[in-house]
Design goal:
Elements (H helix, E strand, L loop, with lengths): L11 H10 L5 E4 L15 E4 L9 E7 L5 H14 L4 E6 L7 H4 L6 H7 L14 E2 L5 E4 L10 H14 L8 E6 L6 H4 L7 E6 L3 H18 L5 E8 L5 H10 L3 E5 L3 H8 L11 H19 L11 H7 L4
Parallel strand pairs: 3-7, 3-8, 4-6, 4-7, 8-9, 9-10
Antiparallel strand pairs: 1-2, 5-6
Length: 324
């Protein structure tokens, strides 16, 4: 990898000595009745990560949304947009399918769990190039992966990934970190990226199912905001010709739309070509989308106001949405 930080990385023998002297990351379950310093809500069963493993000076964004809504497409193109603005970008895929970054790297990269397993989970044996891969325009890519289907905890995997990044001092030379997170927030494990993020960003379409899922994600982010630094950053409208239902929901709950990406065939074709939108043949409509991504990156880099949105109860949003 042709990166500035590679030459400064310690060798394997040195890492063993450093590891003996460094504090270990701890992962614990926040169970009802347990005494913890940062509870995540009454009755919760959560993964709690060691607060000493922070992100340094990097701006960290966690991207959520309904499954299949285009989070990975959005995350990858947003990563490129940040890199076009001269920022050093790290994208972390948090899905066992490990398909977050393939349009950047042109491959299904090995996951953190894959490489840890190859060294029998002796992380001191790993080099950065074993799990960090350089993608288009210099975007650095990590696929956290996950446990086999139906087993284990996604939060543990995210914790191990962040731990490795800190051990190799990769966050110190990074301006922007983007967590691309699996589907809806269905457990504390996949909500754990919010413990590292500055802003939670939600991708949604202008339809019932996407907005219904977004409402629950708002609840999850607001729950984490009680004990962590993360705040709601806003909404990205994706795969939608119009945004009327999104805007109506935003007005009712206190959210704001950050960007709007229509449902263009070039986006589908870019996935098939394993390419970002910035690598596709130029057309007026594509250039408009590229410009929207660049404006979104500039807006997020400049900083968005934290949104104190109030999610609806499930029954209320069910009645609120729809009926043409």
């Amino acid at each position: 990898m042709k990166t500035a930080w590679k030459a400064s990385l310690p060798r394997r023998g040195q890492r063993r000595e450093q590891r003996k002297q460094e504090p270990m990351t701890t992962l614990s379950l926040n169970r009802p009745g347990a005494r913890t310093s940062r509870p995540d809500g009454e009755g919760s069963v959560q993964v709690e990560l060691d607060a000493r493993f922070d992100s340094g000076a990097a701006k960290v964004f966690a991207v959520y949304g309904k499954g299949g809504i285009g989070k990975s497409t959005t995350s990858s193109n947003l990563s490129v947009a940040f890199s076009k603005l001269g920022k050093r970008v790290l994208q972390i895929g948090c899905d066992p399918k490990h398909d977050s970054t393939f349009t950047l790297t042109k491959r299904l990269a090995p996951t953190v769990i894959d490489v840890l397993e190859s060294v029998e989970f002796h992380s001191e044996e790993l080099r950065a190039e074993d799990f960090v891969f350089e993608g288009y325009n210099g975007v650095m890519c990590v696929e956290a992966g996950g446990p086999p289907a139906g087993t284990g905890c996604g939060g543990y995997v995210v914790g191990q990934t962040v731990k490795l990044l800190k051990e190799h001092r990769l966050l110190e030379d990074t301006d922007v970190v983007i967590f691309d997170v699996l589907g809806d927030v269905v457990c504390g494990g996949f909500a754990s990226p919010l413990q590292h993020a500055e802003r939670g960003v939600i991708v949604t379409a202008n339809d019932f199912d996407s907005i219904f899922a977004m409402n629950r994600i708002v609840s999850a982010i607001q729950a984490k905001a009680k004990n962590y630094d993360v705040r709601l950053g806003g909404v990205i409208a994706n795969r939608s010709a119009a945004t009327d239902e999104i805007d109506r929901y935003n007005d009712a709950t206190g959210l704001k739309r950050l960007a709007h990406f229509p449902d263009l065939d070039v986006i589908r074709r870019s996935r098939l070509k394993k390419s970002t939108l910035f690598e596709m043949d130029p057309t007026p409509e594509l250039e408009a989308v590229q410009q929207e991504y660049l404006q979104l990156a500039a807006k997020l880099w400049a900083g968005t106001d934290p949104l104190d949105a109030i999610p609806m109860k499930d029954r209320d949003i069910f009645d609120f949405l729809g009926f043409d």
